Amino acid sequence: MEIVLVTEGGFCFGVRRAMKMAEELLAEHGGGVTLGPLIHNREAVSRLQEQGLRVAETVEDLKPGEVVMLRTHGTGPITTRELTERGVTLVDATCPFVARAQREAAQYHADGYQVLVLGEADHPEARGIAEHTGGAATIVEAPADLAGLELRKQVAVVCQTTQRLDALQALVHDLLPLVSELRVANTICDATTKRQEASLQVAREVDVMVVIGGKHSANTTRLAQICAETGTPTHHIETAAELEADWVQGAARIGVTAGASTPDWLISEVVARLGELGA
Ligand code: F3S
Fold first, then answer.
1. Does the beta carbon of 163 lie inside 6 Å of ligand 1?
2. Is 125 one of the catalytic residues?
3. How many Å lie between the centroid of ligand 1 and the Cα of residue 15?
4. Which CATH class is domain 13-94?
């Protein structure tokens, strides 16, 4: 039994940068806070908590004087103002690619366009991007959401960075006949696309696919979906302990990939466990 590891898997640039910033923050201040988990990976967050990082659920949980780290998926100016009014010090770990999507949305809005954010309505990144238009932008999850939307003549589209290119293409296809001017900022992250393409290719060539990452991680869930769509049995796990011997029985090749918020040590643990199961 052979393991085919997707080398593009695991921490992306933005997450690696945020983790490094968190470690530096802990070393310098002996503690710190994030509003919500720093990344969508319970094991990685637990390790940081053991080192003194606190996860606050709401702005009200923050105490004046605390050092608060903004997460990779960023936040909007309204939330940032609430935070500074709370008397905390901010350390901004917003991924530069997310920051670009925020800037594009703000610019289109300032230029008079109706801004649509292609993303998940309840995802903090999509909500943060929309906040950069003063809340004027509408988050659309799929072309079907256009029904019932009052569209102006000049429309601009910005994407949550983890969106799929085909989803953006479908939205543009349906929007074009409805507006007289359409601007599109393809703010889909390159790291996401590359990971998805590499995982898709491996998923097509193996008997079983294992996708490692948080169940709440949007990019890992999408990765698992893409792999499953090839017809190859796909298992989305958070840790090596979830691997079941049945899944790999009789398989000649097992593909392993991981979401952008999955640390290398978790991937190594899964590979080691697969070794124990005969790979
Ligand atoms: Fe940034 Fe792309 Fe990662 S947007 S956080 S580098 S997936």
1. no
2. yes
3. 7
4. alpha beta
Q: What residue type is 35 in one-letter code? A: L
Rounded Cα–Cα distance for residues 33 and 62 (Å): 8
- Residue of 23, 82, 120, 125 marked active site: 125
Q: What pLDDT does 9 receive?
A: 81
Phi-psi region of 168 (alpha: psi -120 to 50; beta: other; left: phi over 0): alpha
Q: Which CATH fold would you assign to the domain 97-188?
A: Cobalt-precorrin-4 Transmethylase; domain 1 (3.40.1010)
Element (DSSP H or E) covering residue 24: helix 13-29
pLDDT in tens, 248-275: 999 999 999 999 889 999 999 999 999 9
Domain ranges of the chain: 2-10+191-276, 13-94, 97-188
Question: What's the whole-model pTM score?
Answer: 0.84
User: Atom 1 of ligand 1 has which residue's CA nearest to it?
Assistant: 14
Q: Return the beta strands (E) in 121-272 as ranges.
A: 138-140, 154-159, 181-185, 208-212, 234-237, 253-258
